[in-house]
Design goal:
This protein has about 400 residues and is an alpha+beta fold. Among the domains are: about 90 residues, Nuclear Transport Factor 2, Chain: A (Roll), CATH 3.10.450.350; about 120 residues, Nuclear Transport Factor 2, Chain: A. It is about 15% helix and about 35% strand. A hairpin with a 4-residue loop joins strand 3 and strand 4. The longest helix has 19 residues. The chain is globular and about 65 Å long.
Length: about 400
Amino acid sequence: MSSFYFSGGAFEQNSEPFSAILDRNDPAFEVPKDSIEQYQDKLISTHKVKANENLKDIFNLYGLDPNDLLALIKANRQATNLSAGQIIEWQQDKSGQLLNVTIYRTARLSSQYHRIGEHFEFTPKRIQGYNKTEIKVAEVRQNFYQAARSIGLTLEQIQTIAKSLYWQIDVTKQASLGDKIAVQLLQHYVGQEKIDTGKVSAIWYRHNNQDYQVGRADNGEFYQLDGASVDKQMDRFPVKSFFPISSAFNPHRLNPVTHRYAPHYGTDIATPIGTPVYATGDGDVVKVGVHPLAGHYLVIKNGRTYSTRFLHLSKVLVKVGQVVKRGQRVALSGNSGRSTGPHLHYELRQNDQPIDPMSAPLPNSRAIPIDQKSEFLSAANTTMLRIRDHF
């Protein structure tokens, strides 16, 4: 763990004053939407429960409304009973409102919570039946999105494909006429009836006679056929020296004087003016500008899932359109905009939702665990042989 520390709750020292509240979805910082994201109206997130982690911890990590946590517990008190390794999945709308939550208890049992007004309705779901694989193939004749839709893939499945391939090929930008996509879906049946749209379990994309192949392992993650991760690592901190945290991530923070919400969507680090600021992950510079509250700012898109924001800078060292690498110096911290003292406001977003950059799980580039590698490689190669017959 890092040696960064909290400064004892002096929220307005080397931070933003409570009166300078940045709009959660201020268009100045918005990451441009690509040909897939423009159709997305719901955002899906998942979290794997760690040992001794409770539902309150998870809500805090992802900035979810504590009132919704209370509503879940009111719907069913068993919501708080979590075990390490269980998967929690939830949907939010563009404003961040929680729409539904699913806790996958076992491979056959899940707890589902659906929003109805200000309340949630609890439904236990026991899965019966069997799984069956199906392979779908398409050729790009217009763009990747239209090709995927032509074979009945859902937006969620299309996002999964684009994310899994992103660091090898960005299908929203690099796809060209004649490219071919083959996808294996794992679908659930009861009798002869298909009861879900299916989960993507393997992908083969052919572009300019080059093949990109990835498969999903038993741990739910995608890997290349040599066992390498499809993800890129991200760092926790955007500075390399130790400075106090002057204001923590808290989207439900209250003004101690007015007792009104004064949300804080990032972490303020009390850096002296001119402190080097580093990219926490590979990505593309999508926004550089000056904002009346945020001062000089920088926004980087770190793959298809994450983006990072750096506010109150004294100088930005990169330009829009530039590709940056993790650990590259991209700016100097400052005291611009509405600020009570020199500091860096660092913000991390997942699926455009603000999350706690100091605690939330970050992507890593670890290869598949060695004890799972042999089984994964055997299954993945068998799957690709099946897919090849459909090309």
